[in-house]
């Protein structure tokens, strides 16, 4: 038995001993994505209230980076084609199980990508997102849906894709936001701050 499986069994034994936690952890494992949606909105609102246009670029990239990371993860997961522990192991506590491949975890990829982007928007928001991401990763192991390596790889992959993508598309996003700042969409960007177009002339 490898280390990854031993860690999974340790977490699963903890799940067996804490039935009172099952509704809370299962709920977060399944619907915690709503928390990350709220964090994305918070990131946009923070950037909107800030005079630093670079943060708005990062906030605009955050949901796009998440979608890119998930899109890239799909062929990787299909190629690896790892059987989830809830289907490969017997006599374990299973609170959630899916039929698709488990490595890397989609939920962890999503959480890692959003966290990396929100770190660029605001450090404190990035820390909150990181805590939520680790909790999401742990919950996916707790419910029996993933091995620890699935969620660790997912967090790292999501963060790496998000950061790399941001560096690549930042000039294009800044240009698009400059165009939007000259339109009625300006109120979505920074209602009280100078426009990006005005800043570029100073």
Can you describe this structure?
It is a single chain. This protein starts with a helix and ends with a helix. The chain has one domain (3-183): Vanadium-containing Chloroperoxidase, domain 1. The protein has 202 residues and is mostly helical. It has helices at 3-17, 22-31, 33-49, 53-80, 85-88, 106-121, 123-142, 148-180, 186-189, 196-201. Helix 4 (53-80) packs antiparallel against helix 6 (106-121), helix 6 runs antiparallel to helix 7 and helix 6 crosses helix 8 (148-180). Pfam families: PAP2.
Features:
202 residues, mainly alpha, Vanadium-containing Chloroperoxidase, domain 1, disordered C terminus
Shape: elongated
Largest sheet: none
CATH class: Mainly Alpha
**CATH fold category name:** Vanadium-containing Chloroperoxidase, domain 1
Task: Please give the domain count.
Answer: 1
What is the CA-based Rg, rounded? 19 Å
Query: What is the average per-residue confidence, as pLDDT, rounded to a whole number?
Result: 87
Second-tier CATH architecture:
Up-down Bundle
- Counting helices, strands and paired strands, the structural category is mainly alpha
| Fourth-level CATH superfamily | Phosphatidic acid phosphatase type 2/haloperoxidase
Strand-residue proportion: under 5%
From the N-terminal CA to the C-terminal CA, the straight-line distance is: 63 Å
* Low confidence ranges: 195-202
Helix content: over 70%
Q: How many separate helices?
A: 10
- Name the helix and strand elements from N-terminus to C-terminus, one letter apiece: HHHHHHHHHH
Report the strand count: 0
């Amino acid at each position: 038995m490898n280390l990854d499986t031993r860690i999974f069994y340790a977490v699963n034994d903890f799940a067996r001993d804490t039935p009172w936690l099952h509704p809370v952890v299962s709920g977060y494992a399944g619907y915690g994505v709503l928390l990350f949606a709220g964090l994305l909105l918070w990131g946009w609102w923070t950037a909107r209230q800030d005079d630093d246009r670079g943060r708005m670029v990062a906030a605009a990239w955050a949901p796009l980076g998440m979608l890119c990371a998930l899109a890239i993860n799909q062929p990787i997961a299909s190629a690896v084609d790892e059987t989830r522990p809830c289907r490969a192991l017997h006599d374990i506590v299973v609170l959630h199980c899916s039929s698709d491949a488990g490595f890397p975890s989609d939920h962890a990829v999503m959480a890692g990508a959003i966290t990396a982007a929100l770190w660029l928007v605001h450090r404190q928001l990035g820390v909150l997102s990181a805590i939520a991401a680790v909790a999401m990763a742990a919950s996916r192991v707790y419910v029996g849906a993933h091995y620890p390596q699935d969620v660790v790889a997912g967090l790292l992959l999501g963060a790496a894709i998000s950061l790399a993508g941001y560096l690549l598309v930042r000039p294009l996003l800044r240009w698009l936001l400059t165009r939007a700042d000259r339109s009625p969409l300006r109120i979505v960007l920074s209602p009280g701050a100078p426009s990006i177009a005005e800043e570029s002339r100073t």
